[in-house]
Design goal:
The complex is a heterodimer of chains A (591) and B (305). Chain A has 591 residues and is of the alpha+beta class. Chain A contains 18 helices and 25 strands. Helices cover 0% and strands 45% of the residues of chain B. Classes of the chains: A alpha+beta (591), B mainly beta (305).
Chain lengths: 591, 305
């Protein structure tokens, strides 16, 4: 056996100690390079996933994924040309076309360059009628005119020259930056439409020639990702939403925001959603998320309450104010969230007023909530310019569940909420004339337990969350594919819900015992649409429909709510201040 | 003499969804026999309003649609958008017949005016425009409807008097060109009103008092004959200057009708633009109707020029 004298081992020992020290210093300081390496890996996973999906038709996203992986470039060229043969799809065509074009710019042949140019000369997309449409359209237009500047009115399908188009696009984008960072976003916190905002911003960041625009796009991305981060729970976008589809309510992992959470926050499963083509641009972007935002998204070591103020989509008629505020409250914990908006007609058709979101053992999540299935010509008239009575039939055609009594999306003018930390009161004061005079509760089938108490409480467990629901009025149960529906047929109605981590209790019985110490007073419900609730934590909540809220004897004035308020994110006048542990980041749109 | 054509502004069709591959909206032109129809300009531009001057220059076309105000000065061969991001859907257009460079547009966010073929807009009001009409004889006089009711201006929109003499949204206006003091207004929920003094006072017509009226048309050859298109009452017909009305639904039952126009050359021929069913035609002064063209579309506006 060879032995090495100590003296000859010294250099090795020093090397080992040095390596150990370096490792620990690195962990403490969490250098950007590690985070970026992980991001790069997840971005590549997204590209690979999208590349490997079997597709019968190509798309700009598919092309971009192959370009990003440097594969099948010849086929990409052929596919690109074929997609330009017959442009359709409005801004849903123009934006991904520009994205794929610019990301693959160096690969394209002169024929492709000419054809893209010619597309802008001959095809004029409808620019849309919603906030996300307009962000997409004006981004695509801006990227196009900066690619082909100094062209005349004859070279653009809309008959304006390059400068006019640029001025129009930048005018809208600057206005949108300003409104979003001062009044709030209209299509806020949408698990589906989040991508329709961040992808244009990423393309602006990646390709805008104007450095100040690039910088504003970067700040806007920080802003939107921060907005997502405070409501984010291991892949799920929680709380109240401006716009959501039923498939995402039933399975939060189908939200199109989720791949962006996967890539940039990094603490959830790789989403297996073939429809997530937009994520490809998130996988290709050079945008880097500040570490502090990632930490805010993933640190659930202590529960917290996040307040946010948003705005209602433009009310063009049948209203006094163009953009009334929306007040959001979200209680975030390690394994669940309880979130709500204050209620009413705050976004047509697809509003989601409140839910408990809990994490499942398989890493996915599910939602428990209630709603009043509301529809009216009045609601549509507030937001859409078409002839009132005819607009209704059009909306039913485009959003097929709008007037269905068993739908799971939509707000109601007869619904309001009052949330205090992990306790929520929902009040319904249905008018006799409303088409559907019931409310529905969605109890997902992923709930582990469901016990109905003689005191009227329904105790359920979702993942590691204990949830207590106290409907004010009885109802009837029915079973559906993904849930148990509880339907209650009373005009004056509502519920209380309290949610806890299961780890806070010795056992299930202890949880139920605590809940039963609460006190619910419904004596004024029929006459005044008012309830008083002493929570299991001894707070006294008084709530009268529509907007009288009192906590422990003090009036709750929601109008004082800033754009963001939480332990991690606070805002005022276009400035967002993020703080987490020792870190701070200021996102300043006020200048 | 150039044969008149029918121009149709198509808002949507049965399969249309924003961003879909479906085309078939925008400005269409066809002949009165119905055997020719063509899309002029863009096939994906949801169109709320049109104003057509085929004999002006190379053919002056204005369309109001989801991308703003479009103008063509060569009969639709090329187009220019003259409004920007601040002005979204153009719901109404009114152009001075003798000065087609002067144009008013009613939008969801107010009334605008241009005196330069749609360039350089001046914003005159800020609220949703239900209906818009410029007096045929006195172009300084404007009738503007907001959701609360009717406003009038005597000075080309610089100032609007909130008469609210009609306390409802007015969707449609028509003026008797032989007796211009006589004006008709069709409302959202209260049927038809008539004024005999150029809008200083109005009287609600007794017939169809709760009808939703979308457009009005006066027979230029027989101004005692007036037609109104409605949401659920078919075509309303008056043969006595609006004193009394009857409803015609023969062949056009259960169809919401956005617009009605009369063939200036053969006033027994009428054309109606409907919701979801394209254009219908009557050859007997509106008594009977049959499908004519563009089935499956919402035709918001029609002109025969």
């Amino acid at each position: 056996m060879n032995c090495y004298p100590l003296s000859s081992l010294r250099p090795l020992w020093l090397l080992f100690v040095s390596f150990f020290l370096m490792l620990n210093i690195s962990k403490a300081d969490e250098p950007v390079s590690n985070m970026q390496t992980e991001l790069t890996i997840r971005q590549k996973n997204i590209l690979e996933y999208y590349y490997n999906i079997e597709r019968k038709r190509t798309s700009f996203y598919y092309i971009a994924s192959r370009i990003g992986l440097n594969r099948d470039v010849d086929q990409c060229r052929k596919d690109f040309l074929s997609l330009l043969e017959n442009p359709t799809g409005d801004m849903f065509f123009s934006l991904p076309m520009m994205g794929a074009y610019l990301h693959g710019y160096k690969f394209w042949t002169p024929e492709i360059h000419d054809k893209v140019r010619n597309t802008w000369k001959t095809y004029l997309p409808y620019r849309g009628d919603t906030e996300n449409h307009w962000v997409m359209w004006h981004t695509a237009l801006l990227l196009a005119v900066q690619t082909w500047p100094n062209l005349s009115i004859n070279d653009w399908a809309n008959g304006r020259n390059s400068q006019e188009n640029y001025d129009d696009a930048i005018g809208f984008l600057n206005s949108w930056f300003h409104t979003t960072t001062t009044v709030g976003q209209g299509e806020f916190d949408s698990p589906h439409y989040f991508q329709n905002f961040v992808v244009p911003l990423m393309l602006l960041y990646d390709f805008a020639n104007d450095s100040s625009l690039k910088h504003r796009a970067e700040k806007a991305l920080h802003w939107l990702f921060t907005d997502y981060a405070v409501d984010y729970l291991k892949g799920a976008y929680t709380g109240g939403h401006s716009r959501i589809y039923e498939r995402t309510i039933k399975d939060p992992f189908r939200g199109n925001a989720m791949p962006f959470g996967y890539m940039f926050f990094g603490d959830c499963l790789l989403p297996q959603n073939p429809g997530m083509g937009w994520a490809v641009f998130g996988a290709l972007t050079k945008y880097k998320l500040p570490k502090i935002i990632q930490r805010i998204a993933t640190d659930r070591s202590k529960p917290y309450v996040a307040y946010e103020k948003k705005r209602v989509r433009n009310i063009i008629r049948l209203g006094e104010q163009l953009n009334p505020p929306v007040y959001k409250t979200n209680y975030m914990s390690a394994n669940f969230s309880l979130g709500s908006v204050d209620g009413g007609l705050q976004q047509p058709i697809q509003l989601h007023t409140w839910s408990v979101t809990y994490i499942l053992p398989n890493g996915k999540s599910d939602n428990l909530f209630s709603l009043h299935p509301y529809y009216s010509v009045y609601e549509l008239g507030m937001f859409f310019p078409e002839e009132l009575k005819i607009a209704f039939s059009e909306i039913v055609k485009q959003k097929g569940t709008y007037n269905k009594e068993d739908k799971w999306t939509g707000g109601s003018e007869f619904e309001r909420t009052f949330q205090h930390k992990n306790v929520l009161i929902v009040l319904y004061d249905l008018a006799k004339e409303t088409p559907y005079k019931h409310i529905d509760y969605y109890f997902p089938k992923t709930l582990k337990k469901r016990e109905e108490d003689q005191n009227g409480w329904i105790f359920v467990q979702g993942g590691k969350a204990y949830i207590a629901v106290r409907p004010f009025k009885p109802g009837d149960w029915s079973e559906e594919e993904t849930c148990y529906r509880l339907r209650s047929h009373y005009l004056k109605n509502g519920l209380v819900v309290e949610v806890f981590e299961s780890a806070e209790f010795e056992n299930w019985q202890a949880f139920k015992t605590k809940i039963l110490t609460s006190g619910l007073n419904l004596s004024h419900l029929e006459a005044n649409s008012e309830v008083t609730y002493k929570t299991s934590s001894n707070d006294l909540m008084k709530f009268r429909f529509p907007d009288f809220r009192e906590l422990n004897g003090e009036h709750v004035d929601l109008t004082q709510m800033p754009l963001f308020e939480s332990p991690f994110v606070n805002s005022k006048n276009g400035v967002l201040v993020l703080s987490h542990e020792d870190g701070e980041l200021v996102i300043d749109f006020s200048k | 003499m150039r044969e008149r054509k029918i121009y149709a502004g198509v808002l949507t069709n049965r399969n249309y969804v924003v961003g879909s591959k479906n085309q078939g909206v925008g400005l269409f032109v066809g002949n009165k026999s119905g055997d020719f129809w063509d899309n002029v300009g863009f096939t994906n531009m949801r169109t709320f309003a049109i104003e057509i001057f085929p004999r002006f220059e190379g053919g002056l076309f204005y369309t109001g649609n989801g991308n703003g105000l479009f103008i063509s000065r060569n009969g639709g061969a090329s187009w220019r958008v003259t409004t920007g991001w601040e002005i979204t859907e153009i719901l109404h257009i009114s152009v001075l017949p003798n000065k087609p460079n002067v144009i008013y547009i009613g939008t969801a966010y107010g009334l605008y005016k241009s005196e330069q073929f749609g360039e350089n807009w001046q914003r005159l009001t800020k609220r949703f425009v239900n209906g818009l009409f410029v007096d045929c004889v006195d172009p300084n006089r404007i009738y503007l409807s907001e959701e609360d009711g009717l406003l009038t201006s005597q000075n080309s929109g610089r100032f609007f008097q909130k008469d609210f003499l009609i306390n409802d949204g007015v969707n449609a206006f028509a003026q008797n060109q032989d007796y211009p003091d006589q004006i008709y207004a069709g409302t959202e929920d209260n049927g038809i009103y008539i004024s005999h003094n150029r809008g200083k006072s109005w009287r609600q017509i007794n017939d169809f008092k709760t009808a939703t009226i979308y457009s009005l048309a006066i027979d230029l050859q027989n101004p005692n004959k007036i037609y109104a298109s409605t949401f659920s009452d078919g075509i309303l017909i008056s043969n006595n200057f609006g004193k009394t009305w009857t409803s015609s639904k023969n062949g056009i039952e259960n169809i919401a009708i956005y617009s009605v126009v009369i063939d200036p050359d053969h006033s027994n021929y009428l054309f109606a633009g409907t919701a979801n069913h394209g254009i219908y035609r009557s050859t007997d002064h509106g008594k009977n109707w049959s499908p004519f063209a563009l089935d499956g579309t919402h035709v918001l506006e029609l002109e025969i020029k």
